[in-house]
Amino acid sequence: MSGVLSDGSPKTFVFDLDGVVYLDSTAVPGAGEALTALRDGGHQILFATNNSARAVETVVGNITRRTGFVPDPESVITSGLAAANLLSETDETCLVLGSDELGETLSDAGIQLTTDPAGATAVVVGLDLGLSYERLTRAVVAIAGGARFIATNDDPTYPMPNARYPGAGSIVAAVERATGKTPVVCGKPNKPMRHLVEKRIEHSDVWMVGDRPDTDLALAADAGWGKILVLSGVTDYDHTLPPDLQPDHTIATIAGLPGLVMLKDVENGG
Fold it and tell me: Catalytic residue numbers?
């Protein structure tokens, strides 16, 4: 269970990325400085993103270039990794409706890939910026033929600077409608993602920092972590939320987070 944010104890902060650390290719102002201040203060920084379109190495590079903060690759957990971990428990031949880097993430985990619907025992659906009717059809045919239906995440949108673009959930919904099948969803707030994050947590006091109540805050609620809502992404005001999704703190951007964490030192004149 999480304690008081400013009690001076070492904490683990789990950050969402899109809409929290950056928007598209631009950092949220002050994000790099905030992450550095927290790490220098002895806190663990983890990143948990539902965006499966990029492999961990690409995500590390994106964070570094956009914010100036250099993360440890082990600190980055993607919904693609969660899907790979789930599928690695069984012997699967997988058809991918998603990015090339999602395919690489699965292949690196030892999962055999195919483009033949008849040869697929599982289908993984994620964000696919190259979506075509042909690719969608292969996924639908494979699932209709008995392949397992795995979704990296079901976020309906993802934030861009001036709009919300269709997310993986929009593609998952098309496959679900065409097949009548319900997928196993790997990303936040679901167990496959939670289990991967929990394996990397170093401190007992854990705080989730995100912009989506239904994914980020729901994950924190299920895990018993503290909840911090930022208003720089898809949520631009403090919604009226059910009690279990009420944030412990709401801040405009993560630039304000170090001030909350270090409030005790400020009050004590430290």
Answer: 16, 18
- The CATH architecture that domain 12-79+189-267 belongs to is 3-Layer(aba) Sandwich (3.40)
Q: For 126-167, write each residue's pLDDT tens digit.
A: 999 999 999 999 999 999 999 999 999 999 998 888 888 999
Q: Using CA atoms, how far apart are residues 51 and 165, in angstroms rounded to an integer? A: 13
Separation CA 176–CA 143 (nearest Å): 9
Domain ranges of the chain: 12-79+189-267, 82-185
pLDDT in tens, 198-246: 999 999 999 999 999 999 999 999 999 999 999 998 887 766 788 899 9
Pairing between strand 148-151 and 184-185? parallel
The count of other CB atoms within 10 Å of the CB of residue 266 is: 10
Q: In degrees, to the nearest 5, what angle opens at C-alpha 215 toward C-alphas 209 and 39?
A: 20
Using alpha carbons, select from 208, 214, 270 the residue that is nearest to residue 2: 208
